[in-house]
Amino acid sequence: MTRSTRQRERQAEAEQQEEEEGVRECPECNSDNLVKSSDRAELVCEDCGLVVEEEQIDPGPEWRAFNHQERQEKSRVGAPTTQTMHDKGLTTTIDWKDKDAYGRSISSKKRSQMHRLRKWQERIRTKDAGERNLQFALSEIDRMASALGVPRSVREVASVIYRRALKEDLIRGRSIEGVATSALYAACRKEGIPRSLEEISEVSRVERKEIGRTYRYISQELGLEMKPVDPKKYVPRFCSELELSEEVQTKANEIIETTAEEGLLSGKSPTGYAAAAIYAASLLCNEKKTQREVADVAQVTEVTIRNRYQEQIEAMGIHS
């Protein structure tokens, strides 16, 4: 086979692959900002407005539903797979209600049979100690995530991190609760919804020191690249709990940005730094809050706020 023949074959394969994958960029302006319009079955370039493809095949269901109840009634498949359940949600579930499909009560003989089936169903869902471990850990992650009020994406990421830790045998010699809590803390940081160690330890059954120690071990062993937490991410939540205005929030972010550029943030706790900036901003905007009130919300000491506050106002050139 000659060199030119091989080149032609490779080019043909590349063209075929491109056809299978579909159009990736606009032929008019070479932009990759293409948007699918589901109602008109078109692929449109957002930059120049060219209709790249039309009459696209709709992979969705053939039926229409206008509310959640109709969607549930017409749907013919189960819930999507999820990492937050030990069997990824692929198991059979036997309903606890002793009723048939029409809502009528079943006989006592059938009730006894269903009770027995439920019992065996629960037993066979976890075939070994590893699955029981995973089931308990994921339920703990779900409980703590609910108490912290974090979104579903954080629970999924925490479950994936815990599964990786279990696969790498990092749980040996450590408590299941400790590793589960550390996985949740890592997931919060990964997803940009930071929660302090104090907040995590409040909803956990593990001490703060153990969570921090286990988190450092897991992140190192699994190669989780964690960026330092930005104090500005704590500002909206703390301001909301303190019932402060948007003006205070903007001023606090400005203080954090200005002082961080001068290197004051290095080696400091992000929660304490954010709390001090909020305290300073509340004074500057005439919405005074006491150091005690801010410290309670941020779960830091008043001494921390005083120290960070003095450093920040000096860096800003403000005289108290």
Please specify the SSE layout and strand pairing:
Layout: H1 3-21, E1 34-37, E2 42-45, E3 51-54, H2 68-74, H3 108-125, H4 129-148, H5 152-167, H6 176-190, H7 197-203, H8 208-222, H9 235-241, H10 246-261, H11 270-284, H12 291-298, H13 302-316
Antiparallel strand pairs: 1-2, 2-3
Short description:
With 320 residues, the protein is mainly alpha-helical. The protein has helices spanning 3-21, 68-74, 108-125, 129-148, 152-167, 176-190, 197-203, 208-222, 235-241, 246-261, 270-284, 291-298, 302-316, and strands at 34-37, 42-45, 51-54.
CATH names the topology of the largest domain as Cyclin A, domain 1
Provide the CATH superfamily of the largest domain: Cyclin-like
- Which assembly state applies to the chains in this document? single chain
> How many strands, which pairing sense, and closed or not: the largest β-sheet?
3 strands, antiparallel
The value of Rg in angstroms is 28 Å
Q: Structural class, from secondary structure content?
A: mainly alpha
Helix coverage percent: 55-70%
Q: Give the number of helices.
A: 13
- Largest beta sheet: what is the strand line-up? 1-2-3
What share of residues are in beta strands? under 5%
Instruction: Give the beta-strand count.
Output: 3
- CATH architecture identity of the largest domain: Orthogonal Bundle
Helix and strand element order = HEEEHHHHHHHHHHHH
Task: Give the overall pLDDT as a whole number.
Answer: 82
Number of structural domains: 3
Question: What distance lies between the first and last C-alpha atoms, to the nearest angstrom?
Answer: 83 Å
CATH class of the largest domain: Mainly Alpha
The coarse overall form would be extended
Low-confidence stretches: 17-21
